[in-house]
């Protein structure tokens, strides 16, 4: 199903052949994201993402969108900490047209001064919108607490201050230095064959900048005690995010941690959902999310709740974390968690978009494509003892960081309620 090829200039092509699908999803992935940015360029990758939609030498912004939407497709992009992706989906007969639009955006964007001024204002509105959403704001506060004074702790969007200092020359230089051939992966998933994609990509090869693949500073850890950050705001709910530093995507413990996450809070069957919502009605929303980066990672517990319930919720969260450290899960609970994760993998295989994301993330993160069967095999090797071991390693006070957006005025007693 999967094939990959590295072209003469370093660009990699990867495909997921899905002959039963009517569509094709195409993604142009670049191994550059917000954690590669120095502090004074915070927000550059996200700003560049926006600007690639604003016109090229042969297409206006309207032409770009119409070229894909006019054949019944859609076009979008996203910026993460370690990668940026420009992607589109359309009927498989329009593959060449879709690829040409994405290549045109990446290689020929004009960065017109007037468009830069407009898009800077648009991103400021985006930042304001996020700050008005407490559930998003608390995640940014948590990142700043988990990774203080480093790029992983800064917002992907940048700030209004850094945006004002980012000018056309900065963005063009950043593209030339970092959006280089050996950092690019072109991914296609759907009714398209590998040879067809390689052949279609060949005409664009000479246009890619050549240079060393960008590198980012390693994550630093100077934490020895729990940390808390409170943003007091007059709102109806308290938003809580508890982050614990974990391991990188290359660490073998990630498979056990993935199952621990499911047991703890990934779905409605999880311990936190049952304890906090079903049994006691203390929250509407509670969920956990693992993130894995090249050299580190985190596990985040998020919840929205009535402020009066905050002490009780923190005590119950702390109790469930200690329980995972003290007792391995039973075989039935582990089986359910494993079946859920493997079922989610299977469901993801049915979508060309999901396949495109799977392949792009694997190629940039590992330099190869791990199949669903390989991942399932590793999950099947996880035992209850492995779950307990990673809980003891990662669910510790010296890895814990608590962020809140809340009407609460003081933070002194909050960590005490957790009791880690």
Name the features.
Cytochrome Bc1 Complex, Chain A, domain 1, 420 residues, five-stranded mixed beta sheet, six-stranded mixed beta sheet
Describe this structure in words.
The N and C termini lie far apart (46 Å). The model has no long low-confidence stretch (mean pLDDT 96). Helix 10 runs antiparallel to helix 11. The longest helix has 19 residues. It contains 16 helices and 11 strands. Strands 1-2-6-3-5-4 form a 6-stranded mixed beta sheet, sandwiched between helices. Strands 7-11-8-10-9 form a 5-stranded mixed beta sheet, sandwiched between helices. 44% of the residues lie in helices and 20% in strands. It has 2 domains: 206 residues, Cytochrome Bc1 Complex, Chain A, domain 1, CATH 3.30.830; 192 residues, 2-Layer Sandwich (Cytochrome Bc1 Complex, Chain A, domain 1). It has 420 residues and is α+β, with helices and mostly antiparallel strands.
Could you give a short description of this structure?
With about 425 residues, the chain is an alpha+beta fold. It has helices at about 45-50, 60-70, 95-110, 115-130, 135-145, 160-165, 170-180, 195-200, 255-265, 270-280, 310-325, 330-350, 350-365, 370-380, 385-395, 415-420, and strands at about 1-5, 10-15, 25-30, 75-80, 85-90, 185-190, 225-230, 235-245, 285-290, 295-305, 400-405.
Distance between the termini: 46 Å
Shape: globular
Low-confidence stretches: none
Q: What profile does the largest beta sheet have?
A: 6 strands, mixed
């Amino acid at each position: 199903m999967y094939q990959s090829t590295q072209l003469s200039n370093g660009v990699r092509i990867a495909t997921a052949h899905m002959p039963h699908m009517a569509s094709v999803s195409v993604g142009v992935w670049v191994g550059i994201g917000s954690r590669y940015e120095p502090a004074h360029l915070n927000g550059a990758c996200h700003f560049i993402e926006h600007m690639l939609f604003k016109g090229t030498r042969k297409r206006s912004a309207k032409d770009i969108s119409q070229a894909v939407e006019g054949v019944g497709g859609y076009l979008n992009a996203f910026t993460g900490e370690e990668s940026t992706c420009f992607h589109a989906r359309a009927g498989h007969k329009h593959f060449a047209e879709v690829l040409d639009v994405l290549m045109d955006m990446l290689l020929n964007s004009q960065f017109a001064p007037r468009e830069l001024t407009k898009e800077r204002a648009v991103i400021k509105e985006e930042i304001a919108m996020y700050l008005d959403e407490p559930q998003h704001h608390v995640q940014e506060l948590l990142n700043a607490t988990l990774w203080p004074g480093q790029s992983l702790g800064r917002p992907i969007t940048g700030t209004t201050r850094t945006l004002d200092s980012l000018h056309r020359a900065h963005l063009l230089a950043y593209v030339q230095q970092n959006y280089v051939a050996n950092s690019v992966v072109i991914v296609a998933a759907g009714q398209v064959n590998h040879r067809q994609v390689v052949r279609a990509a060949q005409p664009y090869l000479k246009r890619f900048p050549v240079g060393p693949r960008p590198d980012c500073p390693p994550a630093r850890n100077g934490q020895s005690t729990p940390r808390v950050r409170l943003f007091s705001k007059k709102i109806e709910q308290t938003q809580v995010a508890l982050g614990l530093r974990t391991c990188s995507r290359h660490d073998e413990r990630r498979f056990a941690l993935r199952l621990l996450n499911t047991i703890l809070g990934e779905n409605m069957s999880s311990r936190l959902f049952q304890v906090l919502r079903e049994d006691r009605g203390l929250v509407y929303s509670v969920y956990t999310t693992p993130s894995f980066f090249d050299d580190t990672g985190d596990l985040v517990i998020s919840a929205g709740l009535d402020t009066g319930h905050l002490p009780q919720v923190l005590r119950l969260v702390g109790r469930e974390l200690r329980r995972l450290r003290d007792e391995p899960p039973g075989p039935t609970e582990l089986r359910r968690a494993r079946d859920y994760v493997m079922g989610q993998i299977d469901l993801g295989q049915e979508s060309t978009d999901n396949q495109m994301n799977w392949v792009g993330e694997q190629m940039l993160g590992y330099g190869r494509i791990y199949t669903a069967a390989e991942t399932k095999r590793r999950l099947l090797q996880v035992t209850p003892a492995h779950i307990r071991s990673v809980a003891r390693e990662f669910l510790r006070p010296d890895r814990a960081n608590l962020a809140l957006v809340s009407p609460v005025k003081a933070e002194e007693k909050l960590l005490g309620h957790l009791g880690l």
